[in-house]
């Protein structure tokens, strides 16, 4: 359910939005800036629901008709502007906004347009929207969701209130995931670290059973790597070809070495991110930290090569050879 209390972090921004509604000083256009999975959709939806709520409380009331219809996703006065293409063109702006903007709200005193992926708006689309942004009907509120401000014309930007959504810290995401019982406490560290401040990303990964399976497989293989013969280890490069378009397996390997270093040098569980794998980590953390650091660098290098379209098999084989070196020379 869309409620402010459900949103973590960004408390200043939320209280700004609440105060604007309470003091009836809302703007006609807001631009929410944040990376994918940062929570901008959640914030914009909660704000829209709050703007339309018939009661004037600290949260959307969830009992008035507007609040109830909002949750169903079929609120007659909320229009989600989307595009089937990679960009949001002038046709979408005309068809989904300009043709309906002069029609008064059906039931409520506001009509809200939520423009998703607004940073993909073409220049023509922005110019088409500009006139309405300059002289909007008084009941209209535009909520634009975008990943970057640079995508907008200065004239368009100047007509909107820009709100930057800050990523959450790893601890905040960890507390959220565990507090909501979405993952076991020992698993929380991994998903929080992996999501890099983007709560939506963490939620997606938790649901993604293929990703979880990939992690299990990779970590098992990594824990066996040192006891494999080199010829055996190199076969992994072939096996991992299924991840050719998914370099996340290298992030999993990088995090493995990061945790091995923590297990080896600090001997303090608090510094291990993947607490759910601590037994595996402690039993594998045999090499000196300098060697582990070198191996970790080899993983980073392999990822860079793959991003630059390096040959997959060759890159991974080179990496595996580096990971197999025992540092004795
Ligand atoms: Zn309500």
UniProtKB/TrEMBL annotation:
According to the UniProt record, what class of enzyme is this?
transferase
| Keyword tags | Nucleotidyltransferase, Transferase
Instruction: Enumerate the Pfam families for this protein.
Output: DNA_pol3_delta2
MF terms from GO for this chain are:
3'-5' exonuclease activity; DNA-directed DNA polymerase activity
- NCBIfam families with a match to the protein in the record: holB
Q: What's the protein called, per UniProt?
A: DNA polymerase III subunit tau
Enzyme Commission identifier(s)? 2.7.7.7
Gene3D superfamilies to which the protein is assigned, alphabetical: P-loop containing nucleotide triphosphate hydrolases
Gene from which this protein is expressed:
dnaX_2
Transmembrane regions listed in the UniProt entry: none
Lineage at the top is:
Bacteria, Bacillati, Bacillota, Clostridia, Lachnospirales
Report the domain of life of the source organism. Answer: Bacteria
- Extract the PANTHER family matched here: DNA POLYMERASE III SUBUNIT DELTA, REPLICATION FACTOR C / DNA POLYMERASE III GAMMA-TAU SUBUNIT
Q: Does the keyword Nucleotidyltransferase apply?
A: yes
Q: Which GO terms describe its biological process?
A: DNA-templated DNA replication
Enumerate the InterPro entries for this protein.
DNA_pol_HolB (IPR004622), DNA_Rep/Repair_Clamp_Loader (IPR050238), P-loop_NTPase (IPR027417)
């Amino acid at each position: 359910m869309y409620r402010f209390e459900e949103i973590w972090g960004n408390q200043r921004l939320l209280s700004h939005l609440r105060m604007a509604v309470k003091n009836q000083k809302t703007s006609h256009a807001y631009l929410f800036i944040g990376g994918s999975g940062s929570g901008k959709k959640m914030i914009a939806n909660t704000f829209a629901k709050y703007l339309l709520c018939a009661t004037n409380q600290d949260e959307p009331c969830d009992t008035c008709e507007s609040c109830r219809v909002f949750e169903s996703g079929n609120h007659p006065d909320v229009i989600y502007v989307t595009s089937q293409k990679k960009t949001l063109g002038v046709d979408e702006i005309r068809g989904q906004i300009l043709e309906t903007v002069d029609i008064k709200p059906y039931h409520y005193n506001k009509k809200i347009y939520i423009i998703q992926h607004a940073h993909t708006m073409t220049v023509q689309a922005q110019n088409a929207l500009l006139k309405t942004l300059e002289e909007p009907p008084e009941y209209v509120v535009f909520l634009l969701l975008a990943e970057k401000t640079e995508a907008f014309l200065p004239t368009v930007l100047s007509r909107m209130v820009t709100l930057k959504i800050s990523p959450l810290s790893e601890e905040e995401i960890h507390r959220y995931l565990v507090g909501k019982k979405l993952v076991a406490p020992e698993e929380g560290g991994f998903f929080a670290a992996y999501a890099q401040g983007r709560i939506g990303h963490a939620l997606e990964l938790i649901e993604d059973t293929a990703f979880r399976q990939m992690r299990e497989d990779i970590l098992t293989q990594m824990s066996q790597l040192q006891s494999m013969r080199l010829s055996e280890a190199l076969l992994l490069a072939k096996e991992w070809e299924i991840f050719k378009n998914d370099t996340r397996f290298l992030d999993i390997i990088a995090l493995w070495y990061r945790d091995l270093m923590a297990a080896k040098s600090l001997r303090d569980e608090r510094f291990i991110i993947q607490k759910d794998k601590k037994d595996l980590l402690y039993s594998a953390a045999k090499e000196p930290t300098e060697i582990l650091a070198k191996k970790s660098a080899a993983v980073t290098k392999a990822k860079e090569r793959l991003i630059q379209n390096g040959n997959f098999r060759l890159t991974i084989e080179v990496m595996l050879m580096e990971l197999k070196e025992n540092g004795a020379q």
